[in-house]
Amino acid sequence: MKGPVYLNDKTGVVVIGATGREASQVIRESEALFPGIVKAGVTPGKGGSTELPVPVFDTLFQAVSDPKVGALINTALIYVPPVSVLDAVMECLDSGIKVIYIITEHVPIRDSEIIYQEKVRRGAVIVGGTSLGCFVPSVGRIGAIGGKDPSIAFRAGGIVVISKSGGLTVTTAEMFKRRGWGTYCALAIGGDIISNTTYADVLMELKDDPNVKGVVMLGEPGGSYEEQAAELIQSGVFKKPVAAFISGRFQERMPEGVAFGHAGAIVERGMGKASDKISRLEAAGKNHPVKVAFYYHELVSAIESLGVPRDFEDSTAAHVKPLYSTVG
Amino acid sequence: MKLYEHEALESIYRKFKIAAPKFVFATEPNDKVREFIEKEPAVVIKSMVLVGKRGKAGAVKVVSDKAQAIEVFKDLATREVYGEKSIGALVEEKLDIKKEFYLSVTYSTKDRAPAIIFSEHGGMDVEEINPSLIHTHVVTDVRSVYPYQIRKFLVGIGFSDPELLRPLSEMIVNVYRAFWETEARLLEINPLVVAQVGDKQKLVAADAVVLLDDDASISPAVRYGARGGMGRPLTQREQDAILIDQGDHRGKAGSYVELDGDVALMTFGGGGSTVTAETAIEAGLRIANLTDIGGNPPAEKMYKIARIILSKPGLKGVLVCGGTASNTRIDVTLGEGLAKALDDMKAEGVLNPDLVWAVRRSGPEYVKGLKMLHECFVRNGIKGEIYDSQLPITEAPLRLRELMVKLIGYKPEEVV
Which CATH architecture fits A153-313? Predict the structure, then answer.
């Protein structure tokens, strides 16, 4: 198998909520970039529709039992509205699908909890809610990550990017690409309070994967998932270089309860502060190859100083000049 | 969203049979309040604010002298607590307290499950309780939660009062159900008291901190009314910004939090906005606002938020900054929406010509979009630099600082 469990050369995707605005755009783009990766779509009431480049079914059960595409489907991409996500996940699990991405934002926490407990019981892999998807340049893409022209940001290499923020996943891959490091796997895990795939889950999954040369971890305040990753590294289970950046230090200087950015990135009751996460990761860095960047763009020098080899040449000028200037 | 204590008492405690003191809430000392005070031998009066630690701020008072009660009520119903104005006061019967426990239910991200947190040593701030005296029961199967499980937990932690085992375990399950069924993120009772009522001991929830999930299947803002998160009323610009996204789900441009500074931020994406704002602050720029624009908003939305952001008095610089968008069109947002806002402001004579700009953006149609914005800068005499993603996103605030120092002698804040 080429590629990690999240996305590999055996991956066949079914999109749940396929005919919605965002989902149909993603299906069309995916079909153009990686033909054949999406096998089918499901939208109740739109079965048999020919508006998409893949067959559309009313129910997932019909899709997975279809003689043409059914056997190829093993991964689901969920685009339904927040209150329908739990139903969609249960439909996937009951149809035997074991890898599920929840792209939908604002899933009720209670539903996320039910989903997580069900995932554990069934031994499935679920990424999200609020995931942007996954990109493995050597294999393909799931979701909208990287947009219409992902070649701007992604080139095959040895870096794993794990980020709560979808946008920063791409921005980070691009920053590294410009400086000579390509991506093995970029995974937007989402910033929900109950996260089905955490940094530690990904590190456990990839710890023995020889394609992984280094990990870039982007964290946010809230919860304890960054701390759990620090613990895992501290325990010696994950041994490869990790460069981390935790955003949101500035929120600690603001009134408690100021929510900004993702739902999970809320500083409340002194739990999950950025500074706590940073000090836990720095502590792990005393005995393990871990570096925490002060400025986000210093992630690049962190990866460099950890000895992660470049995959190709650095293409950036030492001092970037503006594209346009109206200043003298 | 956080509830006021009286809201929790009225809408949650009653429904889930969580025993609470008799109470009355009012904004002024009306007849109900007077009758209540008359009937009770002594009362507890609390300011109704969302901020915690009211007791320490003197906003919770026990009154047994009835002659004083109305004056205390008037004071507590209107006073400011840590800068937050009371919306009224809650009057409760004074309980004959024998013991004080701590009880809360919240999500533990360590276990990725609801956690019931209990201590026999309540009544003080939870941070002040010796951690070895705080015990946690993790609900690993949300499909079945019964009092016997709680009794097993209580016996396991050496709970000291066997007579209370059954009523306490039942109360805890009621509290858990309230947490679960109202889709809360936190339900905290501190103290949960053992009160003497006649010759009996009774468990009573003497406090209610309820934080509901903003993403709950029924939005709490619909049920209880929207409330700002800053502990202050929304500013006019913040209210105007909220309207941008109302009734129009194409993208998001209406998040705007006003701050004291002089550098306006037009930032894009949840993660990108956070790191950009953060770097700006670390670089000593005094930021004037936070925002988080994304999801490919139409030009009209960008036009509106740009005008709101730029209308704040005293601005000296503007940072337009985002990563490489997957979806948001750069020609639409910057080339059309922002550029039109600048054209119109110039025509109306309200565009400050001394503002210093730095722009950093990439994504769909960025070549076209950045060129359009540059043309707009030229025709309106706007001073600034425009970058694409060759410049790492968080170097943009540093470039803006350089430019502002050079062009207008800006003095960045010393950041420790």
Answer: 3-Layer(aba) Sandwich (3.40)
